[in-house]
Amino acid sequence: MAIAQKIKNSMEQSSWIRKMFEQGALLKAQYGADQVCDFSLGNPNLEPPAVVHQALLKILQESPAALHAYMPNAGHPETRTAVADFLSREHGLPFTLKDIIMTCGAAGAINAVLKALINPGDEVIILAPYFVEYLFYVDNFQGQPKIVSTRPDFLPDLKAIQEAITPRTKAILINSPNNPTGRVYDHTIIHGLGDLLSDYSRKGQVIYLVADEPYRKIVYDGVQVPSAFQAYNESIVVTSYSKDLSLPGERIGFLAVNPQAPDRDELINALTLTNRILGFVNAPALMQRVLVGLQGQTVDITLYQRKRDLFCDGLSQAGYQFDRPEGAFYLFPRSPIPDEVAFVQALQEERILTVPGRGFGAPGYFRIAYCVADEVIERSLPGFARVMKKFTP
């Protein structure tokens, strides 16, 4: 075998999401796509808002000079200025274009941040349940992921986080609204975390708070996502337009450094370098230009809320136990049996694809991505009910 042993091991331990996606492809080939209810992948089914295509057409029609050329590695100045102006209004802090780096999605941003921050052996605290790729991202730079379980309600346990901090802790990576649980970390949690990390900063150990926020604008019932920037000076936000503008295949996002960070200039310089030398070089040029006039735009969030409510009502009637999601587009029910993999396999017999919770560091649960057509949700509910009845008295 020519591939590296480490990558071979990683392939064997790779994402349950992709495994279920591949299983779905087999089922669709066997029964037809319209006979399979696939909730395995968080691939938005909503089309981008009309203004996205209008902006794209306008740019192509005007065909500005150097449309596809290199730009500063941090991104087009006008795009970064537009992002900074929006963040200044949203967070009440004086962002400038110097605080922004356009990236190849949130994944590119996280990798650029981790390469800039961690030395081999440094630790990054990750809260379970977590997005499955986080562990690979930390490993990319010879860091050590340190998994800390959340509370039973899936909110961070500040005491457990404090107990996990060591002299090697360099960052804590949070995700709110959360994939896979749909929970939003509230003001008390975020500011409590900021206070905790500030205590270490005053003692000379800077621990960066890295907030992964691609679902920030996908929230329901008037829920507000607190500002990590306002809670803690040594904070970095990474995000993308994959979810709120339904542009996952365009790989466009940004990272923003808190303008109040004491080492802001050095950090920005490091992040600009890592964004380049990781091979990203710069974020896609055309999409950067498209985004200039689209800050604050989103898909119609009420459509996702309708899907959530449809699913929650149906699963509740069938006896499933779960916390109603406050954001994102995922449900994370408890499996009625300890072995959630066996339960997920039973759902496959009904041609329903979900993802076992152990893939997110939370065995005993399973994830449903409800960013699908309403009719798929409706078609799946009788099957969910039949499988639940099979495993409960």
Report what the structure shows.
This protein is of the alpha/beta class and 393 residues long. It has 2 domains: 5-48 and 299-391, Aspartate Aminotransferase, domain 1, CATH 3.90.1150.10; 50-291, Type I PLP-dependent aspartate aminotransferase-like (Major domain) (Aspartate Aminotransferase, domain 2, 3-Layer(aba) Sandwich). 43% of the residues lie in helices and 13% in strands. The protein is built from 14 helices and 12 strands. A 7-stranded mixed sheet has the order 2-8-7-6-5-3-4, with helices on both faces. Strands 9-12-11 form a 3-stranded antiparallel sheet. Helix 9 (228-231) links the parallel strand 6 (208-212) and strand 7 (235-240). Helix 3 crosses helix 11. The longest helix is centred in the last third of the chain and has 18 residues, at 301-318. It is globular, with a radius of gyration of 21 Å. The mean pLDDT is 95.
Task: Output the keywords.
393 residues; alpha/beta; Aspartate Aminotransferase, domain 1; Aspartate Aminotransferase, domain 2; 2 domains; seven-stranded mixed beta sheet; 12 strands
List the topology elements:
Elements: H1 5-12, H2 16-31, E1 37-38, H3 50-62, H4 77-91, E2 100-103, H5 105-117, E3 123-128, H6 134-139, E4 144-149, H7 158-164, E5 169-175, H8 187-202, E6 208-212, H9 228-231, E7 235-240, E8 253-257, H10 264-280, H11 285-291, H12 301-318, E9 330-331, H13 340-349, E10 352-353, E11 355-356, E12 366-369, H14 374-391
Parallel strand pairs: 1-10, 3-4, 3-5, 5-6, 6-7
Antiparallel strand pairs: 2-8, 7-8, 9-12, 11-12
